[in-house]
Amino acid sequence: MALLSPQLQRFLLTKLHHRNNNNHINNSKTSLLTRRARTQCCSAIAIDPPSSSLTGVSGIRWGSTSLKGARDEMEDDVVVRSDGLEGFSFAAVFDGHAGFSSVKFLRDELYKECVAALQGGFLLRGKDFVAIRKALQEAFEKADKKLLEWLEINGEEDESGSTATVMLLGKDTLFISHIGDSCVVLSRFGKAEMLTDAHRPYGSSKVSLQEIRRIREAGGWIVNGRICGDIAVSRAFGDMRFKTKKNEMLKKGVKEGRWSEKFCSRIQFNGDLVVASPDVFQVSIGSDAEFLLLASDGLWDYIDSSDVVSFVRNQLRQHGDVQLASEALARAALDRRSQDNISIVIADLGQTDWQDLPLQEQNLIYELGQAFATIGIVSLGIWMSSQLSL
Questions:
Q1: Helices (H) and strands (E) in the chain, counts
Q2: Which residues fall within 8 angstroms of residue 145, CB to CB, at 6 or more apart?
Q3: Residues sharing a CB contact under 8 Å with residue 121, sequence separation 6 or more, in sequence order
Q4: Would 135 disulfide with which of 28, 35, 117, 371, CB 3.0-4.6 Å?
Q5: In sequence order, what are the residues at sequence separation of 6 or more whose Cβ sits closer than 8 angstroms to the Cβ of residue 217?
Q6: What share of residues in the chain are helix, strand, coil (percent, to 5)?
Q7: Which UniProt keywords apply (predicted)?
Q8: In a 10 Å sphere around its CB, with 0-12 CB exposed, 13-18 middle and 19+ buried, how is residue 260 labelled?
């Protein structure tokens, strides 16, 4: 079921709440108290939301939140920084699995590797995409190599891993470096533009088919959409058992009865089954760009991109607070029965006057009419079905 449109949300909120939400903008203390109260009412836990006053680049306002869903552990993390890359801000979402240790290592190390590879932002300012893509690929691969060495030293069969999607946002240009199944969406005049593709070993998309072929060529196999029946993402940091410990993974599988020795004797690995090589994109930020939204799959598996953009636009129309908007969106995903952890970063690009933004052409009366018409059609269908069954 789609989220209510901005008009209907606004109508219902006006009827239910006779309060002026503008004090969220003018009174920071009230805004903070409201955020705390809402977090306490939520069944999830907020993790280090940054202040929406963080700017860094051209008046861009940031908001983010991480909520623990129905999972036993919180394995997500969010990083937003405006230092080290002169003229650009760094934002990343990490979605961990099989433990939090890989995320804990990466939240600082990946940023350091990106800063070094991009020469403190010098390459970004030059906008030589070939050089930038090469630098970001090297940064991700170096970070993964360091993580694997760190996991090996820690021992105790740490099988943790993490996806990562990084945004490098400048005044008029965005660079994305991406592995895994988090996604970035850009709102252009209210239209959702998906900027990344999920790296998963199942599905019929071009990217999924490429991932499936790569895994099989490397000697791996896929069971129920999972590599070796285990992991449902095909690009990630860490995950030693699919990189440096593949043979050990086979032996462990035999002991656990997951496959036979005869089956293992036919396996020949020709490469890593899970890789940390990122897709790198460059996106122009025009005058029609409103905001960017980066989130883990705990959001996208339950709300589609068009509904997400409509929801955030309506939030910003109401109060203009990008931090409150990110928190409200995470709660909306939980209300949709999201079972995963949810991490969200929103960058309001500072090009939209949210208070004066006109409502979409579709009016409330028309929308309500459509709703009643839909109810009538469904009721007619039920009646006809009952008649035919007589």
A1: 13, 13
A2: none
A3: 84, 85, 86, 87, 88, 115
A4: 117
A5: 270, 271
A6: 45, 20, 35
A7: Hydrolase, Magnesium, Manganese, Membrane, Metal-binding, Protein phosphatase, Transmembrane, Transmembrane helix
A8: exposed
Of residues 311, 386, 374, the one with CA closest to residue 2: 311
pLDDT tens sequence across 304-329: 999 999 999 999 999 999 999 999 99
How far is residue 267 from each of residues 212, 261, 264, measured CA to CA in Å? 16, 10, 5
Tokens 């931090």 found at: 323
Closest CA relative to residue 237, chosen from 104, 131, 134, 344: 104
Question: What are 247-285's pLDDT values in tens digits?
Answer: 999 999 999 999 999 999 999 999 999 999 999 999 999
Q: Does residue 370 have a pLDDT over 50?
A: no
Domains of the chain: 61-197+279-348 (3.60.40.10), 200-234+240-273 (no CATH)
CB 345 within 8 A of CB 167: yes
Do 52 and 62 form a contact (C-beta atoms < 8 A)?
yes
Q: Collapse the DSSP code of 57 into the 3-class scheme (helix H, G, I; strand E, B; otherwise coil) and give the result.
A: coil
Cα–Cα distance measured from residue 303 to residue 371, given in angstroms and rounded to the nearest whole number: 20
According to DSSP, the residues that pair with 64 across neighbouring strands are 345
Residue with tokens 């079921």: 1
Residue with tokens 């991932």: 211
| Cβ pair 194, 141 in contact under 8 A | no
User: In this structure, what token pair is assigned to residue 101?
Assistant: 């240790």
Give the span between the Cα atoms of 75 and 61, in whole angstroms.
26
Closest CA to 270 of 214, 219, 340, 211: 219
